[in-house]
Amino acid sequence: GAVVSQHPSWVICKSGTSVKIECRSLDFQATTMFWYRQFPKQSLMLMATSNEGSKATYEQGVEKDKFLINHASLTLSTLTVTSAHPEDSSFYICSLAGGPLEQYFGPGTRLTVT
Amino acid sequence: AQSVAQPEDQVNVAEGNPLTVKCTYSVSGNPYLFWYVQYPNRGLQFLLKYITGDNLVKGSYGFEAEFNKSQTSFHLKKPSALVSDSALYFCAVRDPRDDKIIFGKGTRLHILP
Fold first, then answer.
1. Facing B44 at nearest CB: one of A101, A105, A110
2. Which of A90, A93, A94, B66 is least buried, going by the fewest C-beta atoms within 10 A?
3. What is the pLDDT along chain B (113 residues), one digit of tens a residue?
4. How would residue A99 be classed by pLDDT, with cut points 50, 70 and 90?
5. Which of B3, B8, B55 has its CA nearest to residue B26?
6. Alpha-carbon span B35 to B37, nearest angstrom
7. What is the 3-state secondary structure of chain B?
8. Å between A46 CA and nearest CA of chain B
9. CB B81 within 8 A of CB B64
10. Pick from A93, A101, A108: which is nearest to B94 by CB?
11. Helices (H), chain A
């Protein structure tokens, strides 16, 4: 299966700053990637669908101006949390659609906003 | 809308006993169903999936799941639990129209030695 990496694996930032999280497909060209967030002891919630070369599609209730997604190439999608607040602290996971009925998940990035 | 429900927040099973983690689904059209496992501070690991065919699906680490259309269920099972099976398990459904995967709330499985 496709290998998906995320960087950083863990980041701590101060309130009000912005943080960029990278999601890379190491051996697969992905036209579509997904971003999820997971609060402690809760399920994964889909935030947005990242489409290579076009604007991301956000799920209802997700602020597109706060969570900036860029999918500039077939192997890289980035999620930038702008003006981060403590309530943005979460586990962010990306995935890519590796063909029909296959989806591969990254290891996740833990964001802590102080 | 596609959805899955995991009625149990936590399941405790003694090591060596069979285990079942429950999942029911609601989909329009043919269901594409998945089970994933998540260990602490780790990403998701794929266990198995049902697309079509045999109702009993075999997956990784000795897990299997039974698709039951009449009961709209897709319960995860293993004949003999190991302590190392302790983790968080997610049932999920995939919308074939846009590839989105919708997750259940998760069930924490504790295997007691």
1. A105
2. B66
3. 788 999 999 999 999 999 999 999 988 888 889 999 998 767 788 899 998 888 999 999 999 999 999 999 999 999 999 999 999 999 999 877 777 788 999 999 999 99
4. low
5. B3
6. 7
7. CCEEECCCCEEEEECCCCEEECCEEECCCCCCEEEEEECCCCCEEEEEEECCCCCEEECHHHCEEEEECCCCEEEEEECCCCHHHCEEEEEEEECCCCCCEEECCCEEEEEEC
8. 7
9. no
10. A101
11. none
Nearest to B8 by CA among B26, B22, B20: B22
**How many other CB atoms are there within 10 angstroms of residue B29's CB atom?**
9
The type of residue at A23 is: C
Q: Residue holding tokens 């956000």?
A: A58
Partner residues linked to B109 by β-bridges: B11, B87
